[in-house]
Amino acid sequence: MTIPTTKKARLCADVISKSFNLDLKESRKLIAQVFNFNSWDHFIESTQNVKDRTLSESEVYTLNEIFSHRLCQILDIPISRNLLELIKKMSPYSKKPAPYRFDLNSIQGSSDTLISFDDIHEQMGMMHESGNGDEAMMDSLKDLVKQFGGDESGELLSVLENTNFGQLQNMMREAHPVNEELVCNALTKFLNVEFDYIDEPDNMCVAEYYDEHGEPNPLFLTSMVAMPGDSNDTTYLDMVKRIENVCDMNFEKPMILNGSVAFKEIDDKTYAVVGLWHDGHNWNWIFLGNGVTPWQQKRLLSTAQLDNLENSLDNIPPPVELSVPIDDGYPIHLIWHCIVKPSEKPTHQGDSLGVKVENRYIVSGVTGWKTFV
């Protein structure tokens, strides 16, 4: 295995430390093990005379594959396509090793209600003539459209023919319908934030919410769900930028409510986030606490900033006031999800809407944050 330069080796160790929340000494020991050295000092000594040279694409691909597989084996974490792709970005063979937050306990854990799309993707690829999971998924979707697409099948097939699987995933994240009435009422019920619908909804902005001073500010709804620490989610970050571009950020404090909750167990407490709120300076995560407004949350935890999705919110446990409470026997992050993503048509009960609350399957990210499906 090709030895990297001293600079790249040190940078990689620092990135691994930040990504896996490890002590730098432990991270350096890991890197040394990947390259079959007994200590960091011996490994660094071997890099002293290595010249920085341009590697071919095939060399980079091969070295990244070896590095990623060895690191996963040493850490004893299951290897998946997405995980390998993320680790490659941290390797000493990438142009600039970059951190990505991983929760080792979450990756190593399992659950009966946990769905692994990586496993599904890999199995479909193995059964497909191309051996490629992306092509297998696209061909399956085309077959479904041909069979059930009806009058619109021609248009849908045209879209699929000119789209790859990654692009389609992002399109679907943004295109899922959002019931503004259900989401806005959940905002008032669980976060004590009042709102009024606007006459001409536009650009995901469906209403105005009232801040702590009673001033109206734009309220945006998106069908996307984002995981704190998922700095690879450029689609979500691009959406936030688009909202900034249509707002007057000098005077307005926009709020974004996501398509569902993201939640995580931290110090035996469950914490859930449902969107973002701009305080005039920074975007802050909105926790689903016990009726705590976003501006009250900011006073309880001033470090819950978006920070380009690099902030995983778990380096310092959030205050217990922001943890998920139980309401009528159910955790409210499950209730929130069942409200904004109902499995049955909501029923009108006087002035309110009734929804069925039931357990849902869970999808987990490598950051340890999860969401319902």
What are the key terms here?
alpha+beta, single chain, 373 residues, six-stranded mixed sheet, 3 domains, 41% helix
Total domain modules: 3
Give, in spatial order, the strands making up the sheet with the most strands. 1-2-3-4-5-6
Structural class: alpha+beta
Backbone CA Rg? 23 Å
Strand content: 15-25%
Q: What order do the SSEs take from the amino end to the carboxyl end, as H and E?
A: HHHHHHHHHHHEEEHEEEHEEHEEEE
Mean pLDDT: 84
Main pleated-sheet profile: 6 strands, mixed
Measured distance between first and last alpha carbons = 42 Å
Question: Could you explain the architecture of this structure?
Answer:
The chain contains 14 helices and twelve strands. With 373 residues, it is of the alpha+beta class. It has three domains: 6-100, no CATH class; 130-175, no CATH class; 180-372, no CATH class. The strands form four sheets. A six-stranded mixed β-sheet has the order 1-2-3-4-5-6. The protein has a two-stranded antiparallel ribbon with strand order 7-8. The chain has a two-stranded antiparallel sheet with strand order 9-10. α2 (24-34) crosses α4 (57-75) and α8 packs antiparallel against α9.
